[in-house]
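Hi Y.,

Following your request, here is the sequence exactly as I used it, all 447 residues.
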Amino acid sequence: HFAIIPTSQPPKTLSEAEAKVYDLVTKRFLAVFFPPAEFQITTRITRVEGEPFKSEGKVMVNSGWLEIYGKEAESDDTPGLVPVVPKETPKVREVAVDALQTKPPARYSEATLLSAMEGAGKLVDDEELREAMREKGLGTPATRAAIIEGLLLEKYVHRNGRELQPTAKAFSLITLLRGLKIDELCSPELTGDWEYKLAQMEHGKLKRDQFMKQITDMTRHMVARAKEHESDTVPGDFSTLTTPCPKCGGVIKENYKKFQCQKCDFAMWKIMAGRQLEPAEVETLLAEQKVGPLQGFRSRMGKPFVAVVKMTPEFKIEFDFGQSNEANAEPVDFSKEESLGACPKCGGAVYSHGVAYICEKSVGPDRKCDFRTGKIILQRPIEAEQVQKLLTTGKTDLLHRFISKKGRPFSAFLTRGEDGKVSFEFAPREPKAARPKGAARARKTAA
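Below is the corresponding structure, written out as tokens. Let me know if you'd prefer a different format.
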């Protein structure tokens, strides 16, 4: 389809949302006609005890298309590197070590996944196949969006804000295909191979009947491989658990779909509510009759939830949310537990219990209090030490990695109100510091 562009008709009565969309479309349209943005970059390598350390200074000298978005070319107000006279030996005044962690690649959004599908040929090692896919990619411009919608509809991926996250069903499918040695369905090389052969047909180097026969043979091979195995015989890198079967003491082995005892009929599904249980979690469940709280489960409506997974006396596996009437039928023994502090509502002791931190008087047949706060809030585990601070001082440390309903990470304090309710308090935003004068100048690059 054609790109969305503004018309010559000026906008008149637009809502706030419509005005924002119109502004985005208009700016992008105008930016196409502007030159590239240009930067000057200085790169300096300083060696200390033979180890290289890299420093960079960057300044925009020609805003180009960025001018449409209000980013003007900077003069001498961008901080640069400290000047060094030729052949001067810098002195090391201070050494600091920062303990950091590497970050995994960002998850795909629909926009970045569409771009990756378009450039999927880059992932193919074979040069001829890569060349065949150079202008093709996976799908076509008209079908790529529909492919993503199909993955969402069949629950192979789900939306988490802007991100697309693979589900346990998707991982299970890849495990199945690799176990059956049907690797061609897991790689863009299949598309590259077909595009290459279609190009050969176009130039008269391959007959249509030959191409169709190859597809038929490949399909028969896949169907035959699938028929050779039942769900418990699919090959794969599966675990043998060290914890014995709770029913008969036999050995429990993992297969494609279950954790299955080799002596009796005890078995449990690997996937519960859209989340795959890991072997280590199953080991804990078998040994202690419960594991968790675990996050990553999803309801039938697609909403994420947190729960403890427990095993009943009848060896059934089910969720425990810690709020059932059955769980409150008998008193809970907290004598072996360590109190985290006093309940802000009634003064009783607060303990770790199930999926939450609760008041001792909020469980059992004689419940008199309802104070509780989750062990996981907005996908972030809350440590017992932070709950102690919350109970004693009314406020935790600044906690990071909460995930909003739109899938965006944020940081906040947890605070305790006079009514005992736990809520968020956001740190004030720091004002942007003014840029000192002085900038490094070196080579030009185009953005």
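The domain at 110-227 is CATH 1.10.460.10 (Topoisomerase I; domain 2).

Thanks again,
Q.
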